[in-house]
Structures are given as C-alpha cells and as structure tokens.
Amino acid sequence: MAFFISLLKDWKWPCIAVGLSVFMLAAAHAFETFGNLAPCPLCLRQREVYWALIAMTLTGLALWKIVPKRRFLVALNVMIGLVFGVGVVVAFYHSGVEWGIFPPPTGCSGEGPIDPMAFRDFNEPMHVPSCTDAPFYIMGLSMAGWNGVISAFMAIISFVAAGATFRGAASDQPG
Fold first, then answer.
1. Where are the alpha helices (DSSP H) in 34-69?
2. Going from the N-terminus, what domains does the chain have, and what CATH number goes with each?
3. At residue 172, does pLDDT exceed 60?
4. Cα(161)–Cα(83) distance, rounded to whole angstroms?
5. CA gap 148, 50 in Å, rounded
6. What is the spatial distance between Cα 72 and Cα 8, in angstroms, rounded to a whole number?
7. Looking at residue 130, what DSSP letter applies?
8. Among residues 154, 157, 19, which one has the least CA distance to residue 87?
C-alpha cells in the first residue's frame, strides 16, 4: 500500500494521468483505425476531455518546475480530478443517449459512417455516425460506459493523490 501511495505523491500522479490520457486517446484511435469504428460527435466530445487534461497537466507541471510549491501540486491533482469528473458526465450523457434516456444532440443523426480518405464533392453534406447506436457491449456497458467507469476511477485516484500530496507536505516538516 505504501508503494501505491508513493506513486500518488508529488509530481508522479500528474505524469501518470497524462500517460493514461494518452493511452485512452490511442485506444480510441485504434478502434477507429483498425476496428473501422467511425466516431460520432459525442465520442469526439469524450476525447476532448482527455486532450484538455493533457494540455492542462503539462502546463501545470511546467509552471510547477518554475515555482515548485507543494500546494500547487495539490491544486493540480484536484483539477485533474475535476477534469476526469467532466469526463464522467460526458460519458454518462453519451451512455444515456445510447440507452434512449436522453435525447441525442443535434448532429447525431446517424446518416452513416464518414470516410475521410474518400474523394468526394465538398458541396455534398457529410454523413455522421449515430450517437444512439453502440457498436458493442462488454458486460452490459458500451465504450462510452466503460469510458465513464475509467474516468470515475481516475477522478477518485486524483483526489486521493491530492490528499497524499497534501499529507506529504505535513510529514516533510521538521519537528
């Protein structure tokens, strides 16, 4: 358990969070490229959360290197947790659209897949995959559902990391 907590203290969790975000984006791209699963607009919205987290965290780590204050790392870990929380909300909404709980947003018409490599007349409208149709389910959850579970887990770990970094500041004090 001490090893796990040591991975969450200081600058380590923000670096792990960036790595996990890059992995999630790579996995989504692999499903798109190798699995031939074109993303719907809500799928792309879920990816934006990871891109935002990467940009925010790398900027935060760069600023922390300039002014290395522990409380800044605590705040960064809390912000990472909040961004992952936004990922949970977006994934929950997408899952709700797939299950018919929420109405799909405008632009999720489901007019068919988009082939970005196909030569076409640019005056012709593009076809967008449907946000209501999940390509597959694993243990009752779609890809959006699993993204929500992963985001929730990473949000919780981020808040635990903030606490571990904060408590690390107290234990580093002499006396």
1. 41-66
2. 2-171 (1.20.1550)
3. no
4. 14
5. 12
6. 15
7. B
8. 154
Closest CA to 162 of 64, 53, 76: 76
Rounded distance, CA 22 to CA 54, Å? 8
H or E stretch at 22: helix 12-33
Measure Cα distances from 46 to 75, 101, 119, 145, 157 in Å.
23, 18, 28, 11, 19
Specify the amino acid at residue 73: L
pLDDT tens for 13-53 read 899 999 999 999 999 999 888 888 788 888 888 999 999 99
Of 38, 37, 158, which is closest to residue 87 (Cα–Cα)? 158
CB burial readout 76-108, b (16+ within 10 A) else e: bbbbbbebbbbbbebbbbbbebbeeeeebeeeb
Do 18 and 12 contact (CB within 8 A), yes or no? no
pLDDT tens digit string along 82-116? 999 999 999 999 888 888 888 888 767 665 555 55
Contacts of 6 (CB under 8 A, 6+ apart): 12
Cα distance between residue 163 and residue 80, in whole Å: 13
